[in-house]
Amino acid sequence: MTTNNRIVLSSDHAAIGLRQTLAAHIMTLGWEVVDIGPTTPESTHYPKHGEAAAQRVVSGECRLGIVLCGTGQGIMMAANKVKGIRCGVCSDTFSARMIRQHNDANMLSIGARVVGEGVALDIVDAFLSAEFEGGRHGTRVDMITALEE
Ligand code: RB5
Description:
Ribose 5-phosphate Isomerase B, Chain: A, 45% helix, alpha/beta, binds D-ribose
């Protein structure tokens, strides 16, 4: 089990500002933030940023990951193609808490064109403060993992 306190953040061009705001906030919570960019506003391709963040998680370098794009959907789809990733898009705090508690999500995706900064910060807080409950939920997560084979 990975026990480090590192979290990777990445986005496409649509979410650079929100990503940097979230990174600063997450640091105040005691996490070591690995922000892998991008930092310049040119149009870029969300799959490569989702994949790059996902690799930091499955390698064990980072315990969790947060990715963002305009809707949160495309970068989530890309991250979930990496074996071992369970990434959910959240626009509300209930879902953000539940994807940790029930789905053992190791990545969170947020749509920067969907939610405002205040909601995004609350979503991140909900995600980071929740813990996986295990038990019957572990059985179901194992079934998700089995689909990768
Ligand atoms: C970029 O315009 C946009 O398509 C992207 O940020 C994201 O919303 C894709 O899912």
